[in-house]
Amino acid sequence: MPLYYVRVEHREKTAVKSGTRVLRPVSGVDTRAYWMPFTHNRYFKERPASRILARAEGAYYTTVDGRRLFDCLSGLWCCPLGHGHPKIVEAVERQLKELDYSPAFQMGHPKIFSLAARIVERAPAGMAHVFFTNSGSEAVDTALKIAIAYHRMKGETSRTRLIGRERAYHGVGIGGISVGGIAPNRDMFAPLLLQNVDHLPHTLNRREMAFSRGQPGWGEHLADELERLATARGPASVAAVIVEPMQGSAGVIVPPNGYLERLREICDRHGILLVFDEVITGFGRLGENFGAQRFGVVPDMVCFAKIVTNGAVPMGGVIVKPEIYDAFMKGPEHAVELFHGYTYSGHPVATAAAHATLDVIDDEGLLERARELEPLLEQAVHSLKGEPGVADIRNIGLAAAVELEPLPGQPGLRALKVFERGIEEGMLYRFTGETIAMAPPFVSTKGEIERMVDKLQTAIRAAC
Ligand code: PXG
């Protein structure tokens, strides 16, 4: 039975209003009009009480029915500085009064120029320019467009192919789902997918690497599939390869030792651009500014979003090497060089939130903090090996995932049960498929990390 049809248990009462049946859920919120993203709408709307969040402060949410939940995934990976940080709140308030909006095209405002410079300072060595978007999906589609256009600007019009990877999540734009590798995100939209795309194999292999701590020692050779694809397609036909240095959405799939390095070598050999989608890993999740620095591999472009504003205001972007930017700076000076951008690219309020976020990361030493907490999270989460139904545990930086064996004939139900029990235990875990993911705030205490894992043990035991 699909999850959607699980029977209604908590519906309180229905009432008649203007001839329509009105659901009066326990939360007192009328949920009907909102079509929720990536959500089992019908299941949710029958039992929304503890899943509607009213407030947040620091590392905790409060639900409309008064539960306090530890924010185990930092929102959706995006709020590691804690919610309502006074410096971010103050910066946003001030910005709204000073300059609420400034046209993104043919105009600028001072803080976006200085933000670009600050991001470049933190970026992998040799990267020099930032193009701003409003989300990770837009950052990915922007990077793919830049890749194709870059080769055209250089006269290499044959480079039209893109290579993504199985299990990759690159957002929900047409480009992002085309290079992405999560089947349900693609299947429904098959006619829209780009045609010139290949996928590398994902790097997860339970037999070889289950319960690895940090980077697995097996799997470097999987990068050679890029060589094979490039040769088969003709190396001069490939524009770019895009990978998440650590696959987040698919459940913290950590790159094998040497794998990213080998991708870099192959790209260099064939003139292929290497794009790192660092929407999750950018700005500290792996204890460095970017995964590129953590893994010691410099890509040609980096996509970012999420942590750049601590999730307070949407913002994303693409950081590029100077060769890429310079390739576009041709033709008459009065002409637009790249026909791409968004009304809200570099929005002043997002910009102010980003400056404040970078200030807080520096002032509070949060990269160091993430590094300090990493061994503790690793130790704690791997203690769950041997718990009922635990098939694999993976971790790197301040991110970890516990993969569960599906309940027989009921895919996804076990993780949902763990998630629901987690709420009863005061924990907001993230579940997708058979995986529970955790990426706690950098401002978490050691006690909070330990409790998060203790309560997960309770929830896993309850869900078998
Ligand atoms: N690239 C990567 C690597 C991502 O993880 C996106 C692009 C898209 O970003 P936007 O801002 O357009 O959503 C993402 C988003 C999860 C989860 O639970 C992950 C994301 C979003 C929501 C939930 O793993 N990643």
Summarize the structure.
This protein is α/β, with parallel strands linked by helices and 464 residues long.
For the structure shown, list the relevant keywords.
464 residues, alpha/beta, Aspartate Aminotransferase, domain 1, Aspartate Aminotransferase, domain 2, seven-stranded mixed beta sheet, four-stranded mixed beta sheet, 16 helices, globular, binds 3-[O-phosphonopyridoxyl]--amino-benzoic acid
User: Which CATH first-tier class of the largest domain would you pick?
Assistant: Alpha Beta
Task: Tell me which oligomeric state these chains represent.
Answer: single chain
CATH architecture of the largest domain: 3-Layer(aba) Sandwich
CATH evolutionary superfamily of the largest domain: Type I PLP-dependent aspartate aminotransferase-like (Major domain)
Helix content: 25-40%
Structural class: alpha/beta
Strand content: 15-25%
Mean pLDDT: 94
Number of helices: 16
The number of domains is 2
Low-confidence segments, ≥5 residues, pLDDT <50? 1-25
Describe the fold and architecture.
The protein has helices at about 40-45, 75, 85-100, 110-120, 135-155, 175-180, 185, 205-210, 225-235, 260-270, 290-295, 320-330, 350-365, 365-380, 415-425, 445-460, and strands spanning about 15, 20-25, 55, 60-65, 70, 130-135, 160-165, 195-200, 240-245, 275, 300-305, 315-320, 390-395, 400-405, 425-430, 430, 435-440. The chain has about 475 residues and is of the alpha/beta class. The radius of gyration is 23 Å and the shape is globular. The two termini are about 20 Å apart. The structure holds 3-[O-phosphonopyridoxyl]--amino-benzoic acid (PXG). 3-[O-phosphonopyridoxyl]--amino-benzoic acid (PXG) binds near residues 77, 169, 244 and 277. 3-[O-phosphonopyridoxyl]--amino-benzoic acid binds near residues 76, 136, 249, 280 and 305.
